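WARN  no MSA supplied for this record, continuing single-sequence
INFO  ligand: tetrahydrodeoxyuridine
INFO  echoing inputs
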Amino acid sequence: MNEKTIEKAIRVMKNAYNPYSHYAVGCVLIADSGKEYVGCNVENASYGATLCAERVALGNAISQGERKFEEIVLVSSGESLPIPCGICRQMLSEFGDMRVLAINNLGDRQSCMLSELLPMAFKLEK
Ligand code: THU
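INFO  complex generated
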């Protein structure tokens, strides 16, 4: 993984709106086109309305016309690794498989494929 991409994720993490959890996440979603799309978590007083960094980055990429992704890179401000939650796994799986790299504030890294995180993902036939 390109260290510049990780630095980009750390920069966007600093924009997280996280007054409830105080846990910041930064995300860089790398499209097959080679372009990179960023996102951070956006929390809400109605907690369930919170958007994870992954879904913010995905909306950003999709709205620019992207449909296929190589990798998603996640960094967090805490010791918990920012492994995508269930909703984000489902949202990302709509667009095929991709590598997932999660890094915590200690620099610990974990990488796997999205299909390992969400085997048997739900898909409508198209
Ligand atoms: N969060 C993310 O943005 N991505 C993850 O991979 C894990 C969780 C956010 C949601 C919420 O704002 C905060 O982290 C604590 O759950």
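The chain has a mean pLDDT of 97.
INFO  checksum written, moving to next record
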